[in-house]
Amino acid sequence: MAPARVPLPIRLYSAAANLIAPLAYRRVSAKLKAQGTSPSRLPERMGHASANRPDGTLLWFHAASVGESLSILRLIAHMGAVHPDWSFLITSGTATSAQVVAKRLPPRCQHQFAPLDTSSAMRRFLTHWHPDAAIFVESELWPLMLSQTHAAGIPLALLNARISDRSARNWKRAPKTAAHLMGVFRLIHTQDTRTTLHLHDLGLTHAQTGQNLKSVSGPVPYDNASLQKLRGTLKARPLWLASSTHPGEDEIMLAAHTALLRDHPDLLLVLVPRHPERAPTIQSMIASAGLSVARRSTGDDITDETQVYLADTLGETGLWYALSPITCLCGSFSPVGGHNPYEPAYAGSAVLHGPLYANFAQTYPEFDATGGAVEVADAPALAAAINTLIKDPAALTAMREKSRSFVTAQEDMLDHITHDLCLALDLAKTE
Fold it and tell me: Which residue ranges does the chain devote to CATH 3.40.50.11720?
């Protein structure tokens, strides 16, 4: 049978991608270098490996950025424990993802920057690494990366697939292109039934709703010495956490905290902006609200007078989840689509969130139904929910236990995901 004709949009894309490759490389390498990436690693973006391929079976995982990269580490660790003769390669495109993943790499696993989506970069990458299977995560789907990997005879799978309604409408305008790209995957696990239905509409009937990898990613690590120091400073002082705030949400958090201080004058708010570079603006906002602030990045101590602790550092999210009994998870009061609710749940923190959580459209309602999380609409509702939990320690304890139970119930899914991948990717013979 003759191979299926490549759709015109993909042929045009391929020609354009190869033509602008030198300019694209200059731009991405300059950005990586500015973010502290070693110059020796920049050529990885053109497919030049900076490490040797290990002997034996090699599984390649490709993820877009930090969240997606971290979501697969526990799966890789599990697969590595089951198959001690396997090795693993993670690729991603951002400097932050490389820095964060480097601190948490499982045994026999290494990171490389993903090659640019050009014929030459992909050819060099695949010639050097030639993985036995490729697993893509979420929605980081590059046409040449997919087509050349498939053409090399490497079986592919897609995990944690998520397609918004808007993206689905765009895909349906070019169904042949969508089917050509997505048809290379032997296995497609989606995050939610909405994505599954969208893919079925495109003719990809083998797509099935799977487990969200973020549900089995495990607790976010933290420095225990820092946790004990903070607990010693705070003693029995009540606190709550506003995690991953975006513009427009800091005002909501501060309004809720101001209301809470009337009944709980010693209450501390730990405010963690999603992007620490916004800290000066937020600090001014806190001062304008008439609240006293200490800022972590500048080494300010928390005193009895501190009402807001601005935690504007990277890599300490796990510390704040472990410290706080109550977490308001932001990105859900603005059109961001919500952030990963499994992280505070693993720490046993009761979770409050806003009504905008399209990124976790199935997860948040399930979490709410367990009693470990509660949706609140605005600042008054948020203040009322926190006030209730502070005044009723037994209710708070129960909510925290339900939060932790929500994620521990997901643990056995690692075995199921591993089994499905092995079968679909012709790896079953090594189980």
Answer: 56-211+412-430
